[in-house]
Amino acid sequence: MQQVRRSACAVLAITLWAGCKGEHAHEPFSEPVVIDVPRGATSQEIAEALRSRGVIPSKWAFLWERAWNRDATLQAGEYLFERPLKASEVIDILESGSVRLYPLTIREGLNRFDTAEVVASTGLATREEFLALTADPTMVKDILPQAETLEGCLFPDTYQLAKTSTVQDLIGAMVASFRRALDRARSQRSIAIDDWDGLILASMIEKETGDKGERALVSSVFHNRMQRGMLMQCDPTIIYGLLLEGRFRGRIYLSDLTDPHIYNTYVHEGLPPGPIANPGLESLKAAFCPSRSDYLFFVAAPGPRTGHTFSATLRDHNRAVRDLRLYEQANRSSAR
C-alpha cells in the first residue's frame, strides 16, 4: 500500500512539474490586478483565478507549491497584485493575509449617532445595526464600569478595513484604539479627576473647540468652574440631550437653556451623566492635564480665526461677547 502511495505521489509530482515547465511567463501588468479569494475556495479554484489573470504563469506551479506547503492556511480576502509573481511568492502572500485594505476615516467629535451614519454610508452595516451594537458597553466595562453605551469609546481615526471585515471588527478596532489613547492621556494626569469624568470632560472639550492649541485652556475653564461650584454651561451638552430625545431643532433656542433634561449643564451642576461625543487624543490629554489659568469663561473670537477669547471675570467675558456680536452684526450689514 505504501508503495502504491509513493507511486501516486511520484506521478502527481511529475505531472505538476511537467505542467510548470510547459507554461510561459506572463507579460507585466498594464494595471494592478485584484483577485478575490472567497472563503472555502479550493486550491484548484485559487490557482485558476491567479493563472487566468496573469498573476502566476502556471496553475500547476501553484499547485506544486501548495502540495509542498499543505499546512499553510490560505486567507480569504481581496488581494492586489502589482506584477506577476512566482507561485511560492503568492503562497506566502495568501498565507500572511496581506489583503487589500480600504481606509475609513472617523472624524474627531462625532457622537455614535453621527458615526453610525458614516458607517452606513460604506455599506458595512446599517445605521440601526451599528447603534444596536454600540449600545452594549461590555467591551469597556472593565475600565469604565459607569458606561451605559460605547459613546465616547469609539476612537476617531482612519481605520484600514479588508473586504471581509465586519462591523464588529471595526467597533473592536475603535475600542482598542480608545483604550490605548486613554492609557496615554491618563498617564499624564496632573489633576484629581477619575477616568470616567475625564472622558466626559474630554468629549465636552472636543465639541467646544477644533483648535488643538487651546484645548488645554478650554479644559482649565471647566476645571476652574467645577472647583468653584459653577455651572458648566456647555452648549454641546444641551444639543446632545435633545438629540437623545429626538427634540433637537438644528440650533439652540432660548427655551432650550432651561430645558430640564439631564444633559443640560445650564440647569444641572457638575458634568453631564456621560460623554457627548468621541474625543481624540489631544482632548483626552487636555482633560487630564489642563493648562494653569484663572479663566472662567470663553466665547468665539471675532474675526476669521477659529479660536476663542478667554476671560477670568464676567465683566471681561461680557465685553468679549459684545465684541463678537458687533462683528457679526457688521458682517451681516456688509453682506446685504
Overview of the molecule:
By secondary structure, the protein is mainly alpha-helical. α5 (112-122) crosses α6 and α8 (195-208) packs across α9. Among the domains are: 2-99, Endolytic murein transglycosylase (Dna Ligase, domain 1); 102-185, no CATH class; 296-336. It is built from twelve helices and six strands. The longest helix is centred in the C-terminal third of the chain and has 22 residues, at 314-335. The model is unreliable at 1-25 (pLDDT under 50).
Summarize the structure.
With 336 residues, this protein is mostly helical. The chain has helices at residues 2-22, 43-52, 59-68, 87-96, 112-122, 127-134, 167-186, 195-208, 215-227, 235-244, 281-288, 314-335; strands at residues 33-37, 77-81, 101-105, 158-162, 297-300, 308-311.
Which short descriptors sum up this protein?
mainly alpha; two-stranded antiparallel ribbon; 8% strand; Dna Ligase, domain 1; 336 residues
Tell me how many strands there are.
6
Major beta sheet, strand line-up: 1-2
Mean pLDDT figure = 89
Helicity, as a percent range:
40-55%
- What is the architecture of the domain at 2-99 at the second tier of CATH? 2-Layer Sandwich
What is the N-to-C succession of helices and strands?
HEHHEHEHHEHHHHHEEH
Largest sheet: 2 strands, antiparallel
Strand content: 5-15%
**Shape from CA axes?**
elongated
CATH class placement of the domain at 2-99: Alpha Beta
- The termini sit apart by 97 Å
CATH topology of the domain at 2-99: Dna Ligase, domain 1
Radius of gyration: 29 Å
So, the CATH homologous superfamily of the domain at 2-99? Answer: Endolytic murein transglycosylase
SSE-based structural type: mainly alpha
Secondary structure tally, helices: 12
Unreliable residue runs: 1-25
